[in-house]
Design goal:
Length: about 350
Amino acid sequence: MDNTARLSADARVCFVSDLHIGDGSPTESFGRKDDLLRRFFEDEACRADAFVIVGDGFDLAQAWTPGRVEEGHPRLIEDLRQLARAMPVYYLRGNHEGSGRALADFLPLRYYDNLAIGDRVLVEHGNVFDDFHQPGDRRAFWAVRTHALIEKVVRSPVRIPMRKHYYWSTRLGHWLFFRYGQLQRELAHVYESRGHTAKAERCWKFLDYWGRGEWGDAAGLLRAAETVLGNPDVDVLVCGHSHQPGRLELPGGTYVNTGSWTFDDATFARYDDGRFVVQQYPDGRELTDEEYLGVLGPHRDKSFFDWWEAFYRGWLRYDVPEMQRAAMGLSSGTCPLEASAIT
């Protein structure tokens, strides 16, 4: 069955994704930006013909039940209900909502797997392109739920990219993951020596996935976009999932990422008169390829081990200014930044 929402090419559409509204606790990545999001509904969402939440609007992996979401954000949820009564509000399933059935009972929104605008624009949450978070994969959902539990226990984020999340927990997490990565690399060599090609490929694929995330292609969505936009039927691909906002002109078409509302971010996309714009809220700053310069340029094929060698300085210290320069596609020491030296 086709579970695709369809809007006309001349519709005005406002998009957000990855709000990750959870239980309102201190470890919720939405950060209790309720008033900001409610103001966004009034300033931006209501001006469109349709409002689309491109997945992971609610984080049931973190909150466990919709009831706990509403307890943590009662006024915000009521405003969203009012918005849905006033205009079409579409919700595309992400990878933090579980089965999605609980959400459908919780809020009267228009739930779909993906969305098309006209004949040439495809909107997906993005996990359909993510080898490790495929739609409907219960193991993947329990992996994100376990991650949320770890953050609750340590009361501190464990996130990538390091340059945006320089917390003690992330620093320790990266050190542990590096050791795990070394184990995966050794396993790959063992599998190859014994002729277990498929098992070796899974190890290398896992390492490539996380390495690209650190260098600037979280969840491998940029690579996927290049493939999808090579299809003659798609001119524009819109995704969330990676929390990497921007609008990029690629050889096959335009890739738009709506970003997220986690931690210090609050980004959205607007489609009007056939054109997409990605902006930061509330200052309106337009976002294009800033988050992708490194992986589009000199760091396209670098690995997680290359990342470690470039930025790890021992004793759980990492060179954040150099990471910032690498993300901007710059060589070492070429751009003065406000970020502190090795901390």
